[in-house]
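Notes, Module 5: Reading structure tokens.

Key idea: the token line is not a picture. It is a compressed description, and you learn to read it the same way you learned to read a sequence, by spotting repeated patterns. We will look at two proteins. The first is printed below with its tokens.
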Amino acid sequence: MLSGGPGESGASFYTRIEEFQARFPGYDVFIPDHRGTGRSARLCEGETVQSAAGSQLAGQEFGPCFGEVWENADRTKAFSMTNAAYDLDRLIAEFGGSGPRYVYGISYGTGLALRFGQLHQERVDGLVLD
């Protein structure tokens, strides 16, 4: 399951894992963080989980963060949707099991699901775009 955003952490759905498992028995449910969100590497090095907004950018962090993004273009490129699709491919290859595989994208996650489908359609049986 791919959360929305960009900028929403998969962690926002962790409390619902048991619900998803009950609704989809026999399926493994994975809810990864997008690069730069949740418990993954931060987009802006100055941003911390201990900041005022926790895992989200606090108002006073926006200016310095955007400055870092512009100043460190090579690092920023690592946070592309294509790289996120490669992350998803590695996750599915490592933990995907042998049964049917569906990728469920919500909001921004639909774009990531589509990009993943372009790059690795052989890895999944279907995409659900919400």
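Here is the second protein, with the sequence above and the tokens below, as before.
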Amino acid sequence: MESEKYFEMMLDMYYQYFDLYENEEVLGREFDLYAFLEVTNERFMGVKSIKIYQYNDFEHSLVEVNDEFSDELIDDSFFSECIDELIVPESGHHQSFITYIQIVGKPLTSEEISLVENYNYSTSFWLGIRGWCDIRLIVVETNNWQVYANQAGEEVKENYDPHMLADHFGYEI
């Protein structure tokens, strides 16, 4: 029940800025939610017809709701395949994030928390000339409303805080 409530709060959070696809299949695996965001940044000189530069940032969020934590996808080969399928490092690509969010009902063990917090995967394209991609891991425990993240995920961890989401969107937790 709590996991479904949190999932609804996440839908509200993503709704304004992301393209949302529920029950979407990525690499043969069905996710409860796939959310996609593209942000284009441009700088002009004087008028819009004189563009100095343009670059694009992307975020791909893969959300799973599970009864208990699963480390099945916390694997370099899975995320490498995700990058190959989801990221197109063309000219103007600056950075991409693949954010894997797992919403779980049961508490994590200290080993599982350590696995999440110490996971690191990043890759660059054309030695960084065409940008890079970082993997963010977020695990939300709904029985005690704890959020765990890897180093890349720490940047956005507070956005996934259940108390902040509940206050912002008017939910009771």
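Summary for the second protein:
- The beta strands are 19-26, 29-45, 47-66, 93-104, 122-124, 132-141, 146-149.
- The longest helix spans residues 2-15.
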